[in-house]
Amino acid sequence: MAKSAPHVYLSSLPFAPTNSLIFMHYSSMFPRTLRVKSGRWSHWPSSEMVISNLRSPVNSIALSSDGQRIISGSDDGTIRAWNATTGEIVAGPFTGHSNPVMSVALSPDDQHIVSGSYDRTIRLWNATTGETVAGPFTGHSESVTSVGFSPDSQHIISGSDDGTIRVWNATTGETVAGPFGRHSDWVTSVAFSPDGQHIVSGSSDRKIRVRNATTGETVAGPFGGHSKPVDSVAFSPDGQHIVSGSDDGTIRVWNATTGETVAGPFSGHSNWVGSVAFSLDGLHIVSGFGDGTIHVWNVTTGETVAGPFSGHSDLVRSVAFSPDGQHIVSGSDDGTIRVWNAMTRETVAGPSTSSGHPHWVGSVAFSPDGQYIVSGSFDRTILLWNAMTGETVSGPFTGHSDSVRSVAFSPDGQHIVSGSSDQTIRVWDATTGKTVAGPFSGHSISVRSVAFSPDGQHIVSGSEDRTIRLWNAMTGETVAGPFSGHSDLVTSVAFSPDGQHIVSGSDDGTIRLWDATTGETVAGPFRGHSNWVLSVAFSPDGQYIVSGSYDRTIRVWNATTGENVAGPFSGHSGWVRSVAFSPDGQHIVSGSDDQTIRVWNTTTRETVAGPFSGHLGWVMSVAFSSDGQHIVSGSSDRTIRLWNTVTGGTEATGQVDFTDQSKINEEGWICGINDELLMWIPPLHRAGLHRPSNIWVSGEHETRLDLSTFVHGRSWGTCINS
């Protein structure tokens, strides 16, 4: 509001929760403001503060013993200290590391900060001045992933991707114990016991070990139970138990002496657990998930006692309780630090059509009849949506153990095929969500793209292993391939309308046309893009191929000769991640990392619709409906948007034009054509803000505005009821 004081009334007041004292007391006094038609919250959210000016993923956070300061380490290689109440920076940035800071810890006496970095070193800083008081400590041969202080502040522990653990003298930087080995993979997390006698470590080898802090001997473990890498471990305040979080999506509590599982596994989502921590009284555990949510658990029962807290738009790397247990602090890959009220049981009080995906939406597709949309997400699940209402009609379909990178309908609309980073392909009943075929195994790395043949009998897949395979859609047998020829990962594949050919795009910058039966290259490689080819598609008549590239352009090729017949189409300022032809072949839709969608005339290369703004992340996937009237888009902002391509969109009043092209700046302002401030949108409403051409937006916070009474600019004073 520092940018424009009148928006205390014009923008902030209208978004205040309906049950808040501010809204109930003042809203009737200011009738000529924007109105929130849907998406208004009933109560204030759990997130009490957001620190958003880091502009770099936050890998680690720590709290001072009095809870007044937050320490952060981030991907930009710096450390900062923040006021935990106001969010103001009180010290830093501390510079010295040459690579991302992976872990930070504050000494128990609050005098020093220790940091571990991807640059393989450890540094000790004066917590007030930011001066380096010791270090860099060298010895690890790979990234330092985790650091911590001993209870007496005299020693520092470190874990590394080199598979070892070291204990250092905090003053001299000498290694006083270690390196301790035994883990067969990266050491992801380390911590001292409360009495300083023991060390716990978690590893990508899926094991947890407890060692003597002086000799390095294993005194308990390895504890086995997690089915994927262990990302985070911590001792309980009394030292009797250890909590662990894993990529398998579960949390376990162990007896620190025997290694027995005494509680858990707790599972709140199908996503990895990035960080865990005990409350100071030992009664609760806080966890941060890869889907951006935070949960608080009862240590004994495993019940969720608070949360899930939503607000982060990317995975949560680090969480911690305040000393009084009243607040939680979290750091995320979205570049923000959040402070939450730990006592709030319900996070989301606002209405929503569907909660949607809690992670990136990597792929979307229309059913052949245009009635449904399928989405695949990095949350490892698939959802089926009513295309007109945005309601979830089926799902989530679960089975994949890693990100779903590609989804497609069968020609009859009865089945859905999915390809995943777990290297497998599955075929699902579109109604029940049951796996009817698969998982198909054969690829050795992530499956990036899948498609059904026009007759529905076969499935084609493209993989990061640089090959293409053709499968029997029901049995999962490989009927052709692997097709080899690309020198880098295969990003996109598609069948020709007659089913005779397959087109592929690759990070080698080329496009190839294959005989679908023999796997022979019948045309190509087509060259023209100056970088990775991220998406390819056939025209409805099979005569042309469209491609989108990392070089930010789109090209159209003769499918037989490989001649570039149209393009490059220029306009996007980011990678073109997805392209598709309209059903009549006259238009091409593209989605880009610049967060926009464009519709192009295939012949003239002109933008005929768009750029459509609304997504706050990369546009990962786009598709036309069967009648060409609608476009669906999926994004890394975790939302799906359905656009009406016919009407275009401008919500106009005498005072303000809010259009599909209106962008939200970094501070949350929607600006006019002359950069004038039109209205301010609160953070939790930005990703779900409904645009004029949107039919619906998925997610918890779809927000629709009514601007019919909105006054702006020099007329703002008339907002009050006089």
Question: How many domains is the backbone divided into?
Answer: 2
Low-confidence stretches: 345-354, 650-654
- E-strand count: 62
**Approximately how much beta-strand content do the residues carry?**
over 45%
CATH topology of the largest domain: Methylamine Dehydrogenase, Chain H
Number of discrete helical segments: 3
> Radius of gyration from the CA trace?
27 Å
Broad shape: globular
* Strand order, largest beta sheet: 2-29-28-27
Structural summary, described in words:
The chain is an all-beta fold. It folds into 2 domains: 47-341, YVTN repeat-like/Quinoprotein amine dehydrogenase (Methylamine Dehydrogenase, Chain H, 7 Propeller), CATH 2.130.10; 375-631, YVTN repeat-like/Quinoprotein amine dehydrogenase (Methylamine Dehydrogenase, Chain H). The protein has 3 helices and 62 strands. The strands form 17 sheets. A 4-stranded antiparallel sheet has the order 2-29-28-27, with no helix packed on it. The chain is globular, with a radius of gyration of 27 Å. The chain starts with 6 loop residues before the first helix and ends in a 16-residue tail after the last strand.
